[in-house]
Amino acid sequence: MAGMTISKLTKMKAAGDKIVSVTAYDASFAKLFASCGMDFMLVGDSLGNVIQGQATTLPVTVEQVAYHTEAVRRGAPDAFVMADMPFMSYTTPEQACHEAAKLMRAGANMVKLEGGEWLLETIRMLVERSVPVCAHLGLLPQSINVLGGYKVQGREQSAAENTVRQALALQQAGAQMLVLECVPTELGQLISSKLSIPVIGIGAGPHTDGQILVMHDMFGLNSDYLPKFVKNFLAEAGDLSSAVELYIKQVKDGTFPGPEHSFE
Ligand code: KIV
Ligand code: NA
């Protein structure tokens, strides 16, 4: 959406207006998403999977995310664009600043980092240096070798409480948005209600402040592995722009995600 800012997104949360977002990697789709009224776009390190054909996001570099951010920015000059900091690009606060600068110069409005408490100092340093930060909790694809698989996170009481604690700490450190991936509906709802910053869910149930999907999943282009939270909007809508409009409409009116796309 033209002229979207983090303060507008925060006001949408406060007003109870759902935020809708999608990943984008090139100018043509970015232009389509912007023209349909998408609230923001993410240049995700999922580009490793869907663009490069990698098994995980780990091989993705900052230079590659920057390249795709430039393309998205050209296609959607007025859009709010978030860019992922890839694996091992934010091991220290100093490195994070150095690498985030490349993404901001490429046209990002905000960067996203995966992780909890260990990122607090990094987030403070980025925010103090004028790099807006989105945190990412729940399933962390960059930690797949530690997690041992793409599984729902925060099912046990202690893990859920830990995630709530981390979300509050990340907000306190200056994060202005949170992506919550693959957690039970109840936890998605609890964290969204406890935070004042927008919580954007993917597989986190219908009660988060907004939703995000990988664009290929929205179009049913996912060949072998179909996560539960995915819906093929193209099959229902018939053409690309109608599919995008249907996704936006169903997030805005609360019909997507339904219980069949959520984890109880
Ligand atoms: O890289 C990505 O596409 C993401 C979304 C799944 C949130 O991080
Ligand atoms: Na990502």
From TrEMBL:
Residue positions binding Mg(2+): D45, D84, E114
InterPro entries named in the record: Pantoate_hydroxy_MeTrfase (IPR003700), Pyrv/PenolPyrv_kinase-like_dom (IPR015813), Pyrv_kinase-like_dom_sf (IPR040442)
Catalytic activity: (6R)-5,10-methylene-5,6,7,8-tetrahydrofolate + 3-methyl-2-oxobutanoate + H2O = 2-dehydropantoate + (6S)-5,6,7,8-tetrahydrofolate
One Gene Ontology cellular component annotation held by this UniProt entry: cytoplasm
Transmembrane intervals: none
Superkingdom classification of source: Bacteria
One Gene Ontology term of the molecular function aspect: 3-methyl-2-oxobutanoate hydroxymethyltransferase activity
Cellular localization per UniProt: Cytoplasm
GO biological process, one term: methylation
Residues annotated for 3-methyl-2-oxobutanoate binding in this entry: D45, S46, D84, K112
Location of the active site: E181 (proton acceptor)
Listed pathway(s): Cofactor biosynthesis; (R)-pantothenate biosynthesis; (R)-pantoate from 3-methyl-2-oxobutanoate: step 1/2
UniProt keyword annotation of Methyltransferase present: yes
Documented EC number(s): 2.1.2.11
Names of the cofactor(s): Mg(2+)
Keywords: Cytoplasm, Magnesium, Metal-binding, Methyltransferase, Pantothenate biosynthesis, Transferase
EC category: transferase
Cofactor binding, note field: Binds 1 Mg(2+) ion per subunit.
Quaternary data: Homodecamer; pentamer of dimers.
Family, per entry: Belongs to the PanB family.
Record's function text: Catalyzes the reversible reaction in which hydroxymethyl group from 5,10-methylenetetrahydrofolate is transferred onto alpha-ketoisovalerate to form ketopantoate.
UniProt protein name: 3-methyl-2-oxobutanoate hydroxymethyltransferase
Gene of this entry: panB
